[in-house]
Amino acid sequence: MNVHDPKLSLSPADELAANVSVPFEAARAMPKSVYTTQDFLDQELEHIFAKEWLCAGRADALSEPGSYLTMEIAGEPVIVLRDRDGELRAMSNVCRHRMSTMLQGRGTVRAIVCPYHAWTYNLDGSLRGAPAMGANSSFCRSEIALPQIRCEEWLGWIMVTLDPDAPSPAERLKDVESLVGYLGMENYVETFREEHVWDTNWKVLAENFMESYHLPVCHSGTIGGSADDLMEMTLPEGTEAFNYHFILRNDSVPLALAHPNNTTLVGDQRRTTWLLSIYPALFISLTNGYFWYLSLHPDGPGKVKILYGGGMSPDYAGDPEARKHFDAVKALLDDVNEEDRGCTEKVYKGLSGRLGDPGPLSHLERPNFEFAQYVSRQIEAGRKQDA
């Protein structure tokens, strides 16, 4: 059956299900409709982003009581903060009075104050005060609090979900720790965090991260020549929760290698870069010297909100030349990011045209096919629940 025949008039979800039903050796890129239609994005928001664990950044970014950040999950405004007891919390960012959003961006507060009528909440979400409410006989301050949202720290990452029944990240992602636990990712230090919006679909950027096939061309000006024998790379099978591959680096990017004073790492461990794609939207590049990550959220079919951050391993962060190392890594990563932006925005422009058609995948794009299978699985499960 030719799943690309428009005469079949399949829905985007049905097109995708047919697309991923073949063996990997016969796989093609995902259908255009799953990138460009609002209907499919609405299903992703409901059945993926409102159900799965999403990353709000690194836990060390919220080190002090009252330090907070804000995010939006499938249209739901969320606050993540460090409470007075030092625990991470997530809660609704919507006042329980007239439903204004409250905190914006990042910062540090002693209390959460609504900018509309100054209703004030403690850091645990309980209502502290509400001006001019004494004449309302139905008002009871002790009964009003911001709804709590599940929030857990996993290997140094802040993970948040709207689903009260989702398995914990530690359980769901235990195989990630088995792969990279020797690096102590939880001890890496974040040195920058930025937010961007690109003109592409979130899945285009996700897929771009998952494969190294594009490195020699898209990144010819930066890291394109840093991997040994890229075309001979083998791509391990992933799991239902993530996919991954790794690159053995040469010395063209020295900070990707183990610190000269590190005597723990041996052999290829000293030059391995891990590329971890945590479904649905956390993408981590982990080297011996530094890490960087993307946490994605759709902003319509043709735009993606990007949390972009990174930093250093403890060995390099504690080095006397740490500032020099950081500056070098940040400059490199910014250039890499700009190259990726150009490539992924071109892909979305092509997807939006009428004459393009998804082509066959290389053996270097196994993670892309597994990601497509994941997206299809989640959408199909959601549709069955809705039926």
TrEMBL record:
Gene3D superfamilies, sorted: Naphthalene 1,2-dioxygenase Alpha Subunit, Chain A, domain 1, Rieske [2Fe-2S] iron-sulphur domain
PANTHER family the record matches: CHOLINE MONOOXYGENASE, CHLOROPLASTIC
Descriptive protein name: Rieske 2Fe-2S domain-containing protein
Domain named Rieske: residues: 53-160
Record organism: Jiella mangrovi
The UniProt record lists the keyword Nucleotide-binding: no
Keyword check for Hydrolase: no
InterPro entries: Rieske_2Fe-2S, Rieske_2Fe-2S_sf, Ring_hydroxy_dOase_asu_C_dom, Rng_hydr_dOase-A
UniProt keywords, alphabetically: 2Fe-2S, Iron, Iron-sulfur, Metal-binding, Oxidoreductase
Stored Pfam families: Rieske, Ring_hydroxyl_A
Cofactor: Fe cation
Top-level taxon in the UniProt lineage: Bacteria
Signal peptide range in chain numbering: none
